[in-house]
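#lab-general

N.A. 3:47 PM
ok so I finally got the sequence cleaned up, no stray characters, all 388 residues accounted for. can someone with queue access submit it? mine expired

B.Y. 3:52 PM
send it over

N.A. 3:53 PM
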Amino acid sequence: MYAKPQCPPLLKIIVVAVIVLELVLVGVLATGRAGAQGSAEAPAAADAGAAQPAEAPATPQADKTPAAPEAADQQQGNAAEPITLTVTFAGDCTLGSDVNFDGARSFNTKYSEVDDPTYFLKNVADLFGKDDLTVVNMEGVLTEGGERADKEFAFRGKPEYSKILSSASVETASVANNHSKDYGESSYNDTIEALEADNVKTFGYDRIAYMDVKGVKVALIGAYFPEDSDANQKEMTDNIAKARSEGAQLVLVYAHWGVERDYEPSEGQMRMGRAAIDAGADLVVGSHPHVIQGWEVYQGRYIVYSLGNFCFGGNSNPDDKDGMIFQQTFTVTGDDVAKNDDVDFIACSVSGESDRNTYQPVIAEGDEKTRIDGKIQDSTDKIAQAAA
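B.Y. 4:20 PM
back already:
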């Protein structure tokens, strides 16, 4: 038998040392790899945690987390910020004349003479251009056809006369009045078509006009009261409710009412004006008497009873040429309209000459302004007495 070979003692020591060294190196390398792996995974875990609220905002935990101020502002949007807008109302615009009038002095003859639609409202175009919305009462029809109604006065102008309004920054017109069908139903439709073709939005009766003004949804309602009837009042208040239900933030009513040439509103006018405010209107403005009537504040909202005539082809030389332009600047925050007195009553005349109608309204100045302002105040004082 052969004896087992014996390893020299020195060699044993060297082999053991090498084995130990290898084991130590393996351990160090394993620890280093583990540390490196942990360092690489940590940012990923942190990123996942930061993105979680954005990826899953509907979780209960995310809902309870307070939003940063900037995020809260973004969620509320601009609707929570106050928006101011200025609306201007002018009175009766009869852009035409009656066939029985003296042709030499009629509105239609004046239009042919000047051959320029900007002539008529040139004195107020700057005022209208600086506001956010201008509204008038379109009293008469714009049509080439139809049959004249059997009435004392019937006013008709050419469809091209719509440019008188559009060229002076008049954006909207009420067609709810006693002359809207002077040449039949077709003339009413022709008038709407002519105005809207020139970007003048129309409204009245059951037609509500909605306008986007600086991001505010404005509703314009035209109400006609041939008499103080409950049916007409209901149509008006129903339209106000409808406008609110359809998201209108600012509701404006233009009412055609009252008794011609009366300088104070009737009891019926006051009742209907207040009914409009009670129903949710933010402002009521009126026309039809062809003269100025004053105003009142009811429940913090203005009711202006009659603006009188404005660009008026209904008379070549009216006895009373005084008129009024009304402006109000509204502050709208969401669905809230502030109750304020940021208003202006601007005295004016239908003509720049006292002995005839130039069909070119002018803003009154000096003694004329003082006189008309006094007339407005006198009517307003009587309205306050009646209200009391």
